[in-house]
Design brief:
The chain is mainly beta. The chain is 14% helix and 51% strand. The chain contains 8 helices and 43 strands. The strands form 9 sheets. Strands 1, 2, 5, 6, 9, 10, 11, 14, 15, 17, 18 and 19 form a 12-stranded mixed β-sheet that branches. Strands 32, 33, 34, 35, 36, 37, 42 and 43 form an 8-stranded antiparallel β-sheet that branches. β35 and β36 form a beta hairpin. α6 crosses α7. It is elongated, with a radius of gyration of 49 Å.
Length: 725
């Protein structure tokens, strides 16, 4: 028997280091498998842990899922990522002081639910459904097994509030936060054990007011009455469900804008603890500010040389609060007040005696102001020492759309004196080293600033309509009369014995078509020669020729008319795609050569005649587009040329600044011109004769109209991605 005990002791002594080594070895995360179809994906995290302790956060409006595995480290080869799915754009992992931090960056917001098994964590992502306030964190349980709730209580550690639900085995649960009413936590497949109170009363002045527990079949419903505006996050630690509550943020508006990255419940796992939502530095209440509002019950006070301790006891009874005074609080008070809130009276009395107070819930501590200020300075010093002694962590923050070097200065403003930031230009990653809370602020700032730059598609339509009308009416008439011996009809006078009269408005280029049925009329002898254009493809004319049989008398008349109407519609539609706050230019045209005489002789130069669009857009926060636009349309005009035949340039240009809603069309300019003219050619005196004057006239009428309109339509191509931040 003695030998047996010694052998057992030897075996135990040999196994003890092995057991200690196994307990000292932390859990490791080895692989991450990704699978899925369409907008759904399943992420499986495998490691050496049996029942993992983890928490999941949704950041950036659901575009980032952060999985924190407490007390774990990455394997020797890092995290091996296998497979891919469309919702997941990038996966990063790092080891922190709290464990392994895995960040899943998604292409668009998604809901998630998680389930833990022996040695693995499964996260199911769904980008097809709209985000909801409900989460599932469901560890797997054996079919038919029923867990028992052994303990429900409210715990406060270092200013932190949490509701703890302890079971005898892991169970499925889901959280339904209540914004206006109580928050609910349902534990499936569980019952309440004997001895667990149905209600746990908290502090009405704190975040968690009360907790009630009841059994509904095989479900346990835990309801928490909490402060208005507070947020909650639940995580599982083995057989315990820890429900963390955070008060409503009271930070200034400017600070909230910097740190606002839709965190459904920002939780940092600290072993089996969670980072405090309340500061450990006590709130020191000094003299009341002018804008402070007092809400206490109005009272009347009338005392002379009353001991201040009695006055404080009276105000404690009226305000239903607990008052604790320091040993060095003494003196008497003479006071007379009517209809004053009790909290304002307390504030005035303490100020008049050089005292201050620290209030937590319904407990008020009164001490000299100098003592409280000294305590505050000591608390600040302790906080500074804590920051100086806190271990530093290094976090890699990838930057997708911006330049990491541009964001490094902004991130550096959030770090402590011990922190530093470096830029890896090759991978566009920020390497930040500081205390954990500052790393979270830096990452939130990067996620807020690292947004897609809006891309704007600018489409311009230049519409030009031209209408022309020309009308001409002309007449040609003339003839000849011969009285001579040759024709047998002399005048019979000595002088003039022979007389010949003929029209003289004739030249070699006078149109004579229609005056002779044989197609020739050598000398039509026009008296009035005002023809309108008539020829191949234009105008019309009719001729009448009359003459005597002997040829002594001839009369020829030719009427011609010309009218033309034209309509031209020119549409140019340049379009381009550019980034926000970046100028873009698009042009199309031709270069016209012309001769230029200089010292070196005649040289050929070129003049550009082109259509160009220059725009610089800026996308506003409400989705409108502010633009600086310059549109030029130049074209050659061959109807008007120089002395050497070079065409002139018709220039049209519009430059403006305007604000247009996304997808709307604006008319940024228009030019309307009209040229009309009426011409009259006539024979003096004869053309003024009524009615018969038309035989001595030539009429010309012209009307030309031109209209130019410019339309502009901006469209934000990546609106949902760029404006969601």
């Amino acid at each position: 028997m003695r030998v047996s005990c010694g052998s057992i002791a030897i075996v135990f002594s040999l196994l003890l280091p092995v057991v200690a080594l196994a307990e000292a070895t932390p859990a490791s995360v080895a692989t991450l498998d990704v699978s899925g179809e369409g907008d759904r994906a399943e992420v499986t995290i495998d490691g050496s842990f049996r029942i993992p302790t983890y928490s999941i956060d949704s950041l950036d409006d659901g575009k980032q899922i952060v999985i924190q595995v407490g007390g774990a480290v990455l394997g020797p080869d890092g995290l091996q990522v296998r497979g891919n799915a469309r919702p997941i754009a990038r996966t990063t992992a790092s080891t922190t002081a709290q464990g392994v931090r895995i960040v899943l960056t998604l292409v668009r917001p998604a809901t998630y639910r998680a389930r833990s098994e022996s040695g693995r964590i499964r996260v199911f992502l769904d980008a097809a459904s709209a985000p909801t306030a409900e989460r599932e964190v469901a560890p797997q349980r054996a079919p038919g097994s029923v867990a028992r709730v052994k303990y429900v209580g409210i715990e406060r550690r270092n200013g932190r509030e949490r509701v703890v639900v302890e079971l005898d085995r892991p169970a499925d649960f889901r959280v339904m936060p209540g914004a206006a009413g109580p928050a609910r936590l349902e534990v499936d497949g569980a019952v309440v054990a004997t001895g667990v109170p149905a209600q746990v009363i908290g502090d009405a002045a704190m975040v968690v007011h009360a907790v009630s527990v009841k059994t509904l079949g095989e479900r346990v419903m835990v309801e928490v009455a909490h402060a208005s505006g507070s947020t909650a996050t639940a995580l599982r630690e083995g057989n315990r469900i820890v429900w963390l509550f955070a008060p409503e943020a009271n930070a200034p508006e400017a600070t909230r804008q910097i740190r606002t990255v839709a965190r459904e419940a920002a939780v940092q796992v600290d072993g089996q603890e969670v980072a405090a939502f309340l500061s450990d530095v006590p709130l020191q209440v000094g003299p009341a500010k002018s804008d402070h509002r007092y809400t206490g019950r109005r009272i009347d006070l009338d005392f002379k040389d009353a001991d201040i301790h009695n006055i404080l006891r009276l105000l404690s009874e009226v305000g239903n609060v607990n008052v604790v005074t320091a040993d060095d609080v003494s003196g008497s008070v003479t006071i007379k007040m009517r209809g004053v809130p009790w909290d304002q009276a307390l504030d005035v009395i303490l100020t008049s005696k050089g005292l201050g107070m620290v209030r937590r819930g319904n407990l008020i501590r009164v001490a000299p102001q100098a003592v409280l200020e000294k305590e505050r300075e000591m608390a600040i010093q302790r906080e500074k020492q804590r920051l100086e002694l806190s271990p530093l962590e290094t976090r890699l923050i990838p930057v997708s759309y911006a330049q990491a070097a541009d964001l490094s200065a902004r991130v550096g403003d959030l770090l402590s004196p011990r922190g530093k930031v470096a830029v890896d230009s090759r991978t566009n990653i920020l390497v930040v080293r500081d205390v954990p809370e500052n790393l979270d602020d830096a990452e939130e700032l990067v996620r807020s600033l690292d947004s897609q730059t809006p891309q704007v598609l600018i489409e311009a339509r230049i519409v030009e309509a031209t209408t022309s009308f020309t009308n001409e009416f002309g007449i040609q008439w003339g003839g000849d009369v011969a009285m001579s011996s040759a024709t047998g009809n002399p005048t019979g006078l000595i002088f003039p014995h022979d007389l010949t009269i003929a029209g003289g408005a004739t030249d070699g280029q006078t149109p004579v078509g229609g005056l002779s049925p044989f197609g020739t009329a050598a000398q039509p002898n026009f008296v009035v020669n005002f023809p309108a254009p008539a020829g191949t493809g234009r105008g019309a004319a009719i001729g009448v020729s009359m003459g005597a049989l002997s040829g002594n008398v001839n009369l020829a008349v030719r009427l011609s008319a010309y009218e033309t109407t034209g309509q031209v519609r020119i549409i140019a539609s340049p379009r381009m795609l550019t980034l926000d706050n970046h100028s873009a230019v698009i042009s199309q045209g031709t270069s016209i050569p012309y001769s230029q005489v200089g010292v070196q002789g005649v040289q050929t130069a070129f003049q550009d005649a082109q259509l160009s669009l220059t725009v610089r857009p800026h996308v506003t926060s409400d989705g409108a587009v502010s633009m600086s636009v310059a549109i030029t349309r130049n074209e050659p005009n061959f109807n008007q040329t120089s002395a050497r035949g070079d065409p002139t340039i018709l220039r049209r240009q519009a430059t403006t600044n305007l604000l247009v809603q996304d997808g709307h069309t604006a008319v940024i300019g228009g030019i309307y011109t009209r040229n009309t003219g009426h011409g009259l050619d006539q024979i003096p005196v004869f053309g003024d004769i009524p009615i018969l004057g038309v035989l001595f006239q030539h009429h010309t009428q012209r009307d030309a109209r031109n209209e130019l309109l410019i339309f502009l339509t901006p469209r934000i191509v990546n609106r949902s991605e760029a404006l969601s931040h």
